[in-house]
Amino acid sequence: MTENLPQLGDYMNEHIDAWFLDGFAPSKNPDMWNENLYVQMYRFTKPNGTFATFTAASAVRKGLELVGFEVTKRKGFGKNGNA
Fold first, then answer.
1. Is 25 helix (H, G, I), strand (E, B) or coil?
2. 46 by DSSP, 3-state: which?
3. Can you give the pLDDT at residue 56?
4. Which of the chain's termini has less CB crowding within 10 Å, N or C?
């Protein structure tokens, strides 16, 4: 996925309002969760755009914050507890 994000710029006239990151935990899918993903997401997100993810991993939170996203925990659903 992350290798395709830079190519989106060639086709997009608009930026993205919202992202939903459903790539399992970084321990289960380490290739997805990386700085390149966060940088490209920020690059293609509209001002005041949002994202949601099920992962509560601190490395993901810190990575998203480092590129400029504001990260907050929200009450989650079911057994997850936070989103």
1. coil
2. strand
3. 83
4. N
